[in-house]
Amino acid sequence: MTVVSQSSDEDGSVSSATDPEVHDYTDPDDIKLSLDQTLSQFKTFGSFATSGKIPGDVSTGLSIQGVGRIAFPLIEYQAKQLVQACHRAPFGKGSQTVVDQNVPKTWELNPDQFELLNPAWPAVMDNLTKTISKELGCASEVSVKANLYKLLLYEEGAFFKPHRDTEKEPGMFATLVVCLPSEFEGGTVITKHCGKTKVFE
After folding, report:
1. CA 91, CA 88: separation in Å to the nearest integer?
2. Phi, psi dihedral angles at 194 (to 5 degrees)
3. How many angstroms separate the CA atoms of 37 and 57, rounded?
4. What is the per-residue pLDDT across 141-193, written as a single tens digit (0 to 9) for each?
C-alpha cells in the first residue's frame, strides 16, 4: 500500500499529492528502511559494547571434568590438558550448526563439562552484570542476568572471523565474555554496530 495525501480544490475536484516520505509497506526492504529511520530518532545513553576489569583478586574455582582444578594464570601443561578435554567450537550457519575451522578456530567446553566452585563467584557476576547493563544503557528497572553458555580456549593461531551471535535463549540481547587470567599476545576483539567500531585489546 502506498501512502498519499489528498486535498479538495475550490471547484470540488480532488487532487493527490504524494507524501515526501512515501513507503510501500508491502516491500520488506521499505519496511526495514522505515523502521531504521524511526529507531534512529530515539536517543540512547549507553554504548553498544563495553569492557573493564573485575575488581579485586577473585578466583572462579574452575574445575574441568576429567582434569580437575585449573590454576590461574593458566600454565602450559594444564592448557594442554584442557585441549584434550575440549571439542572444536561450531558456529551457526542459517538453521544449522556446523564445524568449520576456517570460521572459528578455537576449542570449547559445554557447561556440563566444568564447574565454577568458588561460592563468591555468583555475587561477582551479579555485580558485574549490573555495571555492564548500566553502561549498555539499560533502564534501571530492567532485570538483567548473565547465564553461563560455554568455556572457550584460544590457542596460538586461533581466531573467530566476523560474525553475529545468534540468540541462544528468549530475551538474549548481548554476549558477555569473561577473560580468565593467562599470558597472551594479540587476541584483539573488534566490535561493530551501525557504522561504529570499538576495539578491545
Report:
1. 10
2. 50, 45
3. 46
4. 888 999 999 999 988 887 777 777 778 889 999 999 999 988 888 888 899 98
Nearest to 2 by CA among 41, 38, 34, 45: 34
| Secondary structure class of 97 (helix, strand, coil) | strand
- The helix/strand/coil state of 174 is coil
Q: Which three cell numbers stand for residue 32?
A: 526495514
Phi, psi of 37 (to 5 degrees): -65, -40
Classify burial at 56, counting beta carbons within 10 Å of its beta carbon; exposed 0-12, middle 13-18, buried 19 or more: exposed
Give the CA dihedral 75, 81, 86, 87, nearest 10 degrees. 110
Residue with cell 575451522: 101
Cβ proximity of 97 and 91 under 8 Å: yes
Task: Using pLDDT thresholds of 50, 70 and 90, give the confidence band for residue 3.
Answer: very low
DSSP string, 107-129: EEE-GGGEEE--TTHHHHHHHHH
For the beta carbon of residue 14, count every other beta carbon within 10 angstroms: 8
Report helix, strand or coil for 7.
strand
Question: What is the rounded CA–CA span in Å between residue 25 and residue 31?
Answer: 6
Identify whether 28 is preceded by a cis peptide bond (ω within 30 of 0): no
Phi, psi of 165 (to 5 degrees): -65, 135
Instruction: Look up residue 100 and give its three cell numbers.
Output: 568449520
Tell the residue number behind the cell numbers 601443561, with chain if given.
77
Does position 50 have pLDDT exceeding 70, yes or no?
A: yes
